[in-house]
Amino acid sequence: MELKQYDLIIVGGGPVGMFAAYYAGLHQLNALLVESLSELGGQVKALYPEKDILDVAGYPSIKGKDLINNLQKQIDNFPIEIMTDMTVTNIKEDSDGYILQTKNKDFYCKKVLLATGNGSFSPRKLAVDNIEQFENKNLWYFLPSLDKLKDKVVLVAGGGDSAIENAVLASEYANKVYLVHRRDAFRALPFNVTRLEDSSVEIETPYIITDLSNKDSKLKVTLKVIGEEETKDILVDDVLINYGFTSNKGTIDQWNVQLEQDHRAIKVASNMESNVNGIYVVGDASTHPGNANLIASGFGEAITAITEIAKSTHPEKNMAMHSTSIHLSD
Predict the structure, then answer these.
(1) In this predicted model, what pLDDT tens digit does every residue of 144-194 receive, in sequence order?
(2) In what order do the strands lie in the sheet with 231-236?
């Protein structure tokens, strides 16, 4: 069977993959964007739609869901093909390009751009008995619709940036918000810690959650200090657990192409090309000297990779190298 051919296939539809697709359109590449989830946006859309993103140039602050919507509008300027609910199970070399295999069909392309982030992800769960009876009812691992928190009492558990940001955001809607962390110090940006201290959030440290139970239509959360016996109870309506997420990049290890890795990230050169000629990697999936795992730096890496791909795929074309010389239409 003859496979449909593309100049480029982008694997991963998070913010960086979406921006790479847009930039591929600017360079008039015949590109396909493949995403394993049912919609584009990656973790930002699935887990942090209400989170304030602070590292995108030109936006003092932008909600995760609004950033994804804007990226989609950028892509819509071009005939970029998009396929969701499609996981790449293998990549193998073929003549002067690559065959990407999925459970549904195979594709051929000249170049591959991996923007897979941290791979598939799942939340680190709260380790208490009978947790299943509360999950997705009044215990959450990502911030639910803010309307659901209106006039409620909410407890957020965690000590990182996401926990603090979610606690501060929830305090703008809920009647009361507690933030519980096992240490007195937070592992978050000083900016976020200052926001927390200036907010109405009540800080409960150094405590861990040891038990959950129902009481008078509320959720009773039992807290204790590590190494001590005395406990305290707090009655709340909802609990938000922000202990981070575990990722799985195991699929990459099963591909025919052997990509050099360092601590589960793929090593790339300054042009974002991996050790395999024609396969480029951007965003959290890549590692190189001086890289930072930020959306903003991922956007810059996407520009570098797409420009390199465009030049090598169509050397006969003059490539626009400045933003003022790039146009949406001829």
Answers:
(1) 778 889 999 999 999 998 899 999 999 999 999 999 999 999 999 899 999
(2) 208-215, 218-224, 231-236
Question: Does 132 carry a binding-site annotation?
Answer: no
Length of the chain counted residue by residue: 330
Q: From the CB of residue 47, how many other CB atoms can be counted at a distance below 10 Å?
A: 18
The whole-model pTM stands at 0.71
Q: Which two tokens stand for residue 224?
A: 């204790």
Q: Is 43 annotated as a binding residue?
A: yes
Q: Is 302 helix (H, G, I), strand (E, B) or coil?
A: helix
Residue with the two structure tokens 């990502």 = 142
Looking at the predicted structure, is the pLDDT value of residue 12 above 80? Answer: yes
Q: How many whole angstroms separate alpha carbon 123 and alpha carbon 242? A: 8
Q: Is 284 annotated as a binding residue?
A: yes
- 324 marked as part of a ligand binding site: yes
Known binding residue 35? Answer is: yes
Contact 304, 136 (CB under 8 A): no
Q: What gap in Å lies between CA 201 and CA 211, rounded to an integer?
A: 22
What is the Cα–Cα distance from 249 to 244, expressed in whole angstroms? Answer: 16
The model's confidence at residue 124, banded by pLDDT at 50, 70 and 90, is confident
pLDDT digits (tens, 9 = 90+) for 221-253: 999 998 899 999 999 999 999 998 776 655 788
Half-sphere exposure of 203 (CA within 13 A, CB side): 19
